[in-house]
Write a structure and sequence with these properties.
This protein starts with a helix and ends in a 10-residue tail after the last helix. It is built from 5 helices and no strands. It is mostly helical.
Length: 172
């Protein structure tokens, strides 16, 4: 809009690099989250399968790649960005609230990472996430709600009964 063409190219390059980096981190992080959830009994045992040579969670990496490939071929660019944003913001919101909950529930728990002014920073972080989430389109909220319901059904259908954290009978 300002007529600075070199600035447009610079910003576009930065956007491409940052989106690629974020999506790569998501693609590498999600299989490890599934791996940890499986170790805790929240997902079936095959999710914790580790490649014999590379020692990486290869099964969940492949599953994640297939799901992302299918989703990216079905969803439009804006829909994918909105879902990524709302999911990430919701995760950060839960972390902010979880930090406070653990401070109340388990005040003596060892904390190798310290947060200064946690009673100020965590609520401000949660409020910031909610504020940004409010600006997302209605379609993102609907899709997020559907995924959230699917996740809750999976948790109560499988994870709750098999959780090692709950000390349930029959949990591995």
């Amino acid at each position: 809009m300002a007529g600075i063409t070199w600035g447009q190219a610079f910003i576009s390059l930065g956007a491409i690099i940052s989106m690629t980096a974020v999506l790569l981190v998501f693609q590498l992080g999600q299989p490890r989250i599934f791996f940890s959830m499986s170790r805790d009994g929240l997902l079936p045992e095959w999710f914790r399968s580790v490649h014999p040579r590379y020692r990486t969670p290869h099964v969940t990496t492949i599953v994640t790649g297939v799901v992302v490939a299918i989703a990216s071929s079905i969803l439009g660019r804006d829909e994918a960005y909105d879902l990524t944003n709302i999911g990430t913001l919701f995760a950060f919101l839960i972390v902010c609230l979880g930090v406070l909950a653990l401070r109340i529930k388990e005040p003596a728990r060892p904390r190798p990472f310290r947060a200064p002014l946690v009673w100020l920073v965590a609520p401000l972080g949660a409020a910031g996430c909610l504020y940004v989430m409010r600006g997302l389109p209605t379609a993102a909220w609907v899709r997020f709600g559907v995924w959230l319901v699917i996740g809750i059904v999976l948790y109560f259908g499988y994870g709750f009964r098999h959780s090692r954290r709950q000390g349930r009978p029959g949990s591995a």
